[in-house]
Amino acid sequence: MTDQVPDRPARWWRKQRAQDRDSRVQRGVALRAFIYIFGTHIIAGWVMLLFYLGGHANK
Fold first, then answer.
1. pLDDT tens digits, residue range 17-54?
2. Which residue segment(s) compose the domain that 37 sits in?
3. pTM for the full model?
4. Is the pLDDT of residue 57 over 70?
5. Three-state SS sequence of 9-48
6. How many whole angstroms separate alpha carbon 14 and alpha carbon 1?
7. Does residue 50 belong to any structural domain of this protein?
8. 48 assigned to some structural domain
9. How many Å apart are CA 5 and CA 26, to the nearest integer?
10. Beta-carbon neighbour count of residue 9 at 10 Å?
């Protein structure tokens, strides 16, 4: 006699893992976008500072 274990918990676990994976992907995309935007602003600020200092240099 074999015990039949319902596969319902396994389905729930697979569904939960898929949701966790999706949320991790979304967090990764949001973090990457934040880093890119922040980095772009830092570079733009540096370039603006260089132009400002270059414009006010004694020639």
1. 777 787 888 999 999 999 999 999 999 999 999 999 99
2. 26-58
3. 0.60
4. yes
5. HHHHHHHHHHHHHHHHHHHHHHHHHHHHHHHHHHHHHHHH
6. 28
7. yes
8. yes
9. 34
10. 9
Residue 12 falls within a domain, yes or no?
no
Report DSSP state, residue 1: -
18 located within any domain: no
Per-residue confidence (pLDDT) for residue 10, from 0 to 100 = 59
- DSSP-derived 3-state class of residue 56: coil
Structure tokens belonging to residue 7: 């596969």
Q: Based on the structure, what is the number of domains in the chain?
A: 1
CA distance 15 to 46: 47
Sign of the alpha-carbon dihedral angle for 7, 11, 13, 17: positive
